[in-house]
Design a protein that fits this description.
CATH topology of the largest domain: Diaminopimelate Epimerase, Chain A, domain 1
CATH architecture of the largest domain: Roll
Oligomer: single chain
Largest sheet: 17 strands, mixed
Strand content: 35-45%
Shape: globular
Order of helices and strands: EEHEEEHEEEEEHEEEHEEEEH
Number of strands: 17
CATH class of the largest domain: Alpha Beta
Helix content: 10-25%
Radius of gyration: 19 Å
Number of domains: 2
Structural class: alpha+beta
Length: 280
C-alpha cells in the first residue's frame, strides 16, 4: 500500500454496521470529499472480493444537517434505507452526546431519537400511497394491485410490494422476490415483502430488496408492511414485526412512520489503495 509522507496509509476508511442483520458499509465523507461511484459500490458489496453489504451509506455535510445517500449492492441508488439511518443516527448521537437529531436523505428530512435501552427510533416520513408517487406505471388501486396475490403497493422513498399470506415461511421468497422486483407495474423495480398476521398488531415478515436480494431485515420494508397492514384493516397503526434477523416496532403516527429497534457498529476498517486501484 502506498503511504503519505507522514507514513499514514492511503486508503478509504469505512464502518461496518447492521440493524437486525441488515448490514451496511458506511463511508464518512463529512471531513473529506469522497466520490462513491456505482462501480465502487458494487465492488464493496461483493461478499467474496469486497466487504459485503445489503446497502452502502455515505455520510456528508448537508446545507444544515447531516446528509445520507444510499446505494444497493448492485450499485443502483436508493433514496431511503431505514435500518442504515438508525445505525448512523446512533453513531452520531454517541459521537456528539445528542439524544435527538435531524438529518436529510433524498427521501427528505428525517428525525431520529434515542429510544432508551440501546434502541434507536427514526421517523421515516409519511408513506406515499398514490400510484404516481410510489411510483407505478399506471393508475391502479394501490391497496390491492392487479397482480396475482393482490399485494399492496407503498412508497417509503423507495417502492414496496407487500403480500399477505397464511404462512410467510412457506413462500419461495427467492422465486417470488426475483420475479416481482422487475414487474412491469414498477418502473423503478420494487422491494418485495411476504407477511403474515400472527397475532393482534403482530406480523411476521420476510424481505427481498431490489438490487440486493433476500435480506435478514429491512427498515423501509417494515414501515411499508405496517402501513399496508393498517390500510387493509389487519392491524392497528402500531405493530411488532418479526423478521429473520430480529424484531422492529413500527408506529404510523400523524407526523410519519416511526421505526424502533437495535443497532450495531461491528468494526471500522480501511480499504487499501491496491483495492481502490482495481476500480480505476
Amino acid at each position: 500500500m502506498r503511504a503519505m509522507q507522514d507514513g499514514t496509509p492511503i486508503g478509504l476508511p469505512f464502518m461496518k454496521m447492521h440493524g437486525l442483520g441488515n448490514d451496511f458499509v458506511v463511508v464518512d465523507a463529512r471531513a473529506r470529499v469522497i466520490e462513491v461511484s456505482p462501480a465502487l459500490a458494487r465492488a464493496l458489496g461483493d461478499r467474496h472480493r469486497g466487504v459485503g453489504f445489503d446497502q452502502l451509506a455515505v455520510m456528508t455535510n448537508g446545507s444544515d444537517n447531516l446528509h445520507l445517500a444510499f446505494f444497493n449492492a448492485d450499485g443502483s441508488p436508493s433514496a431511503a434505507c431505514g435500518n442504515a439511518t438508525r445505525c448512523i443516527a446512533r453513531y452520531v448521537m454517541d459521537e456528539t452526546g445528542q439524544k435527538a437529531l435531524r438529518l436529510t436523505t433524498d427521501r427528505g428530512p428525517l428525525e431520529a431519537v434515542d429510544a432508551g435501552d440501546g434502541l434507536t427510533s427514526v421517523n421515516m416520513g409519511q408513506p406515499q400511497l398514490d400510484w404516481r408517487e410510489i411510483p407505478l406505471a399506471e393508475a391502479v388501486d394501490t391497496l390491492e394491485l392487479p397482480i396475482e396475490g393482490a399485494p399492496t403497493a407503498t412508497g417509503m422513498g423507495n417502492p414496496h410490494c407487500t403480500y399477505f399470506v397464511a404462512d410467510a415461511d412457506a413462500v419461495d421468497l427467492a422465486k417470488v422476490g426475483a420475479a416481482q422486483e422487475h414487474h412491469p407495474l414498477f418502473p423503478e423495480r420494487t422491494n418485495v415483502q411476504i407477511a403474515q398476521l400472527v397475532g393482534p398488531d403482530h406480523l411476521r415478515m420476510r424481505v427481498w430488496e431490489r438490487g440486493t436480494g433476500i435480506t435478514l431485515a429491512s427498515g423501509s420494508s417494515s414501515c411499508a408492511t405496517a402501513v399496508a397492514a393498517a390500510r387493509r384493516g389487519l392491524t392497528g397503526r402500531k405493530v411488532q414485526i418479526d423478521l429473520d434477523g430480529g424484531t422492529l416496532v413500527v408506529d404510523w403516527r400523524e407526523d410519519g412512520v416511526w421505526m424502533t429497534g437495535p443497532t450495531m457498529h461491528v468494526f471500522s476498517g480501511t480499504l487499501t489503495s491496491a483495492f481502490l486501484e482495481t476500480l480505476e
